[in-house]
């Protein structure tokens, strides 16, 4: 009912919600598991930062392993990813030449997971419009839960 109230003719959230879940049910076991794992991300962020970092890192790492197995690196030729990679490499070089090279390098090294996560969402997990809408709705639900928690704390 709530989704019907939020829907407009160009964007039927209720229909996309139902269609998205049907599409997930029809996926292969691995893709279904990873898509559901991706969709619970906003709720993992409600727990704490460390589980959320683990969630994001696992998606990035599994995406890299998937790319190795499928030998599909076409996404890496996109300009935005090349730019992010260049920025990351420049940051690592800057870290090595700084006052605390080992600590700075370790802190900077893990930042590659963010562009990898975006690439995973772009070319693998969120290829379908209805599944993207599912993610946006789970983000909305997570945000409403967080608002409820914050209101309860006050």
Question: How would you characterize this protein structure?
Answer:
By secondary structure, the protein is mainly alpha-helical. The protein has one domain. Helix content is 80%, strand content 0%. The protein has 9 helices and no strands. α2 packs across α9 (129-153), α4 (41-47) runs antiparallel to α5 and α4 (41-47) runs parallel beside α9. It starts with a helix and ends with a helix.
List the SSEs and their pairings.
Blueprint: H1 2-6, H2 13-25, H3 29-39, H4 41-47, H5 49-70, H6 79-96, H7 101-109, H8 113-125, H9 129-153
Helix pairs in contact: 2-9, 4-5, 4-9, 5-8, 6-7
Quick description:
The chain is mainly α. The protein is built from nine helices and no strands.
Features of this protein?
154 residues; mainly alpha; globular
Number of strands: 0
Instruction: Give the overall shape.
Output: globular
Q: What structural category do the secondary elements indicate?
A: mainly alpha
Cα-atom Rg, whole angstroms?
19 Å
Percent range for β-strand residues:
under 5%
**Share of helical residues:** over 70%
Count of alpha and pi helical runs: 9
Question: What number is the mean pLDDT?
Answer: 91
Largest sheet geometry: none
Number of domains: 1
End-to-end separation in angstroms reads 30 Å
Order of helices and strands: HHHHHHHHH
| Stretches with pLDDT under 50, minimum 5 residues | none
């Amino acid at each position: 009912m709530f989704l019907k109230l939020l829907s407009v003719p160009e964007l039927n959230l209720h229909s996309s919600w139902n269609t998205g879940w049907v599409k997930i049910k029809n996926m292969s076991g691995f893709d279904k598991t990873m898509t559901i794992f991706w969709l619970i991300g906003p709720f993992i962020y409600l727990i704490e930062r460390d589980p959320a970092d683990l969630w994001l890192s696992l998606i990035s790492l599994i995406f890299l392993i998937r790319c190795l197995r499928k030998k599909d690196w076409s996404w890496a030729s996109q300009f935005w990813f090349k730019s992010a990679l260049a920025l990351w490499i420049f940051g690592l070089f800057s870290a090595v030449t700084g006052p605390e090279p080992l600590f700075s390098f370790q802190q900077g090294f893990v930042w590659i997971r963010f562009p990898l996560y975006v690439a995973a969402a772009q070319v693998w997990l969120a290829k379908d419009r209805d599944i993207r809408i599912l993610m946006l709705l789970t983000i909305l639900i997570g945000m409403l839960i967080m608002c409820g928690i914050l209101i309860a704390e006050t």
